[in-house]
Amino acid sequence: MNLVEGVSLYFEYLQPINILAGFLACLFSFFKRDAAEAFAIDSIAKGATFCAFPSGIAFIICAAFPSFVPKVADATLAFFVGGLALLLIPFIDIRKLFKVPA
Amino acid sequence: MAIELDTRPPSLFSSNANRQLPSLPPSRVNVMPLSGQQMVEPLFFAKVPNIDVNVQAIVHIHFHALSDDRRVIEMNKFLSLDLQDVPVMLGSATFIGSVVGVAWKLALSSAAPTSVVILAATAGLACGRLLSLKAKANR
């Protein structure tokens, strides 16, 4: 199996990899803090955050090799979420200029 | 708002901590008749025992809700978006979109249509906001 085949497999199974990454990150974050009940919701939030990580790797690969763009498993979701990130983060960053300091 | 001050000296052999201070009956407190729900909360913000003057101020705060609908006030919380909520929202959108995509593929053995995925991801954004609020309240 050469590199192209491996990357193609990665792109084919991107959605299960997303779910698996979130699941593992949630469990890791929960048991790293001694399975304390107070951190349960926080661990779920951290797992949800980590769900976007494999998609981010896929985007970086697409930046270097644009021929993989059509192979992104369900490109709709990836581009929807990536576009939202590109849209929201600069907006929120600029909005801090208009906040009155306490 | 009504502030009551008790300036009596503390008695020698009784615990001042549990002493009940006299407070105004609610009928003597001026309440502006406004529409909406009214809530009276006594708030103890200063208590200095064991000096010659015991000062305890009771502040009655009247919350005059502008609307009868509590959901309007609850929804205002959701509008204040923070930068730390964005990763959770985006990740949650990815998660729910992926779950819907995988479930669609397992059930119908074909790729999920665009509209379904975008709807699921938008629902994921809302779920991420709720999750972030819950985590912030728990912290």
Structure overview:
The complex is a heterodimer of chains A (102) and B (139). Chain A is mostly helical and 102 residues long. Chain A has one domain. Helices cover 72% and strands 0% of the residues of chain A. Chain A contains 5 helices and no strands. The termini of chain A are far apart. In chain A, 28% of the residues are buried. The model of chain A has no long low-confidence stretch (mean pLDDT 84). With 139 residues, chain B is an alpha+beta fold. Chain B folds into 2 domains: 62 residues, no CATH class; 58 residues, no CATH class. In chain B, strands 1-3-2 form a 3-stranded antiparallel β-sheet, with no helix packed on it. In chain B, helix 2 packs across helix 3. The longest helix of chain B has 25 residues. The model of chain B has no long low-confidence stretch (mean pLDDT 68). The interface between A and B is medium-sized, with 30 and 32 residues.
Topology of this protein?
The complex is a heterodimer of chains A (102) and B (139).
Chain A: H1 3-12, H2 14-32, H3 40-50, H4 53-64, H5 75-95
Chain B: E1 3-4, E2 38-47, E3 56-64, H1 70-79, H2 85-108, H3 114-138
Antiparallel strand pairs in B: 1-3, 2-3
Helix pairs in contact in B: 2-3
Question: Brief description of this entry?
Answer:
By secondary structure, chain A is mainly α.
Q: What is the succession of H and E elements of chain A?
A: HHHHH
The oligomeric status of these chains comes to heterodimer
- In sequence order, what are the helices and strands of chain B, one letter per element? EEEHHH
Tell me the overall shape of chain A: flat
Percent of residues of chain B in beta strands?
A: 15-25%
Say how many strands of chain B there are.
Answer: 3
Give the strand line-up of the largest sheet of chain B.
Answer: 1-3-2
**Tally of discrete structural domains of chain A:** 1
Helix content of chain B: 40-55%
- Main sheet summary of chain B: 3 strands, antiparallel
Please count the helical segments of chain B: 3
